[in-house]
Amino acid sequence: MRIPILKLYNCLLVSIQWELDDQTALQFQEDLLHKIHETGANGVVIDLTSIDFIDSFIAKVLGDVINMSNLMGVKVVITGIQPAVAITLIELGIGLDNVLTALDLEKGLEKLQQELGE
Amino acid sequence: MSIQSCVTIINEWDIVAARQLGRNVAKELGFGIVDQARITTAISELARNIFLYAGKGQICIDKLNEGGKVGLAINATDNGPGISDIRQVMEDGFSTSGGLGAGLPGVKRLMDQFDIESSPGDGTKIKATKWLR
Ligand SMILES: Nc1ncnc2c1ncn2[C@@H]1O[C@H](COP(=O)(O)OP(=O)(O)OP(=O)(O)O)[C@@H](O)[C@H]1O
Ligand SMILES: [Mg+2]
Asked: Histidine kinase/HSP90-like ATPase domain: which residues (chain B) (predicted)?
């Protein structure tokens, strides 16, 4: 299964709607980088509202894809992290430091536009 | 008193099956959303370690009822290579696979009790328990 990546003006929009298995997570990493390259987008919002847990593997895949996108000159904002997910991530010892986050999709898009200076 | 159900871990899909089993049992026992996430995450870490380092093993979920105290225990067992330095693998950031090294120390923090038995050649046995408050 592949995670759909939508283009909205100069941004890419990703909403992860179901539990991620390892293959889907890795495929998403690759798909997002190709889509950035193809569309010339300069920002990405990844919405995790429907995700009810994140383990160390998924956290690493997410952190890596954010760093890879930054290398390509693209800013990424993560939105919609649920309270239970925030608590377990910190207990796992994963702070996602230096990652841009926002409460919901709308605030995430605003933050992205600010970051991009538009 | 305990009732057990198990998932054999051989491939990545079994990791998904094990955490779904754990979440369902946690829900059934009355654990709240945050504890459900803790239990699901802990199972995912232990199942993935089996898949990555031992190749094959088992995750069993126990429903516990000890003198009116209700709990859930995750038993992760494998006959893989085992671990020679347990103190080292319990350190944050230690990984032999380029991972974050967050799995085992993380599971210990997510759960209430954590026991590990492992020696080279003998495989690994981990039991992690969460009590309902
Ligand atoms: N079942 C096991 N059998 C043999 N070795 C194991 C087992 N589980 C863990 N280990 C060893 O312990 C190390 C630490 O495990 P831990 O889960 O904490 O981190 P990781 O798997 O390397 O990375 P992460 O879990 O953050 O993705 C592993 O790198 C591996 O060498
Ligand atoms: Mg691990």
From this structure: 34-133
The total number of structural domains that make up chain B: 1
Question: Which secondary structure element, helix H or strand E, spans residue A14, and what is its range?
Answer: strand A11-15
Give the domain extent around A71.
5-117
Around Cβ A76, how many Cβ atoms within 10 Å?
A: 25
Structure letter (DSSP) for residue A13: E
Q: Which atom of ligand 1 is nearest to the CA of B76?
A: 1
Cα–Cα nearest to A65, from A53, A54, A78, A55: A78
The verdict on the CB of residue B103 being under 6 Å from ligand 1 is yes
Expressed in angstroms and rounded, the spacing between residue A43 Cα and the centre of ligand 1 is 34
* Domain CATH code at residue B34: 3.30.565.10
What's the domain range around B33? 2-131
Predicted complex ipTM exceeds 0.90: yes
Structure tokens at B59: 């995750």
pLDDT of B128 strictly over 80: yes
Tell me the pTM: 0.95
